[in-house]
Amino acid sequence: MRSHAFASTVAQLAALTLLCSVACTSDDSAPGDGADTDVGTGTGSDTSAVSPATMTASTGTGTPTPTQEPATDSTTDPSADSTGDGETTDSGDSTDSGTDSTGEQDTTPPEVLSIAPAHGSTNVIDEPVTLTFSEPMDTASFEAAFPVASDFQWADDDTTVQFLIPFPFSDATVLYDVVVPTSVQDVAGNGLEDAFTATLGLAALASITLEYSGGLTGNIAEGGTAGTFFRAGDHSGDGVYYGGISFALDVLPEFDGTLGVYSATYRSQVISVSGDPNDGALDGIVVDHVQFDSRSEIEDPTVFEAAFYDITAAGDLDAGDAVAVQATQQLQAAWSGGEDYFQLRLRASEPTENATADFFNLRRGADENNGIVAKGVADPDEDNRSRVVIEYFVP
Questions:
Q1: Are the beta carbons of 217 and 294 closer than 8 angstroms?
Q2: Does 193 lie in the same domain as 228?
Q3: Can you give the pLDDT at residue 147?
Q4: Whole-prediction pTM
Q5: Contact 379/368 with Cβ under 8 angstroms?
Q6: Cα 3 from Cα 107, distance rounded (Å)
Q7: What does pLDDT average to over the chain?
Q8: What is the domain range of residue 59?
Q9: Looking at residue 355, what is its pLDDT?
Q10: Which of 11, 101, 255, 380 sits in a 20 to 30 Å window from 164, CA-based?
């Protein structure tokens, strides 16, 4: 708010002329019009992250009560003067210089106009959060207030931001507060007048582990016969060993009764190595999402998604190493599509022609009991058996 003293009739006339000029040139597109700006979406998940000081969570039920509702956008006519004392109300427009459209210093605190997911939302499973402010913000002060968040994406005018929060999902409903503290400032250095809090109801997260199906798990040498070991690589004739692993899906609930898959990870262990089954020798072991009805079909299955994961991209594979394949999208496709089995195939992407057998065997059950467990690798090993660990949301 700006005040003007009037010493004479001439000065009053000049002030009225100035007010008319400001009123007649008001900017309808100024910040504070409440329009949301699309800044895209992000991905990612981290089930082990801890909430920062500005984000709190508690397990419970009931209707969340906000400490401050999202502000209702309004624009004050700069020519209005309800007191008759010559005072006017600034519209709050600001620029990077910290001044408004009249050249005066901006002292108006910013406001949060909206948040998505909205305050009071339930069964929240999406990690991106979008906040819209009444004016351009100091992005550094905002990002400092959310130290464990990531992937901040700002609109061109710095009034809207989207970012990822590692929500603390659990096996029960969680009421979670997203707090924007008063340390968050606009470009002129004005902080929020009051902290803004929105409470979200996070969906419950259930988990289940699938065990492999022995009759369909095994391998086949390119152009050869099928075997029972879960093997991938190449043999001395430089033909590919295709390994196939199967998991029955009939133990899962109906997919329509869920809110979607949060994560699905295939886990196993390297229990023996022949030759050099690493990136340099085989140019990578890739994973396909497939469908087959017998071991003899592992070489030529129905391929749903080829080479969606490279199992040796991180470096060498040695006996005893744990193996983890992220297959969230592929598992959800199989589950929601009504497939009887979730099946993966491992294969050498481009075998090296060196007339040497370069392959590895992955653990199937806890106890292989067939002489292929390398020295120093425990057998039985319940924790490193072949399995798919699934986390999924439930209402």
A1: no
A2: no
A3: 96
A4: 0.72
A5: yes
A6: 14
A7: 80
A8: 30-77+93-202
A9: 85
A10: 255
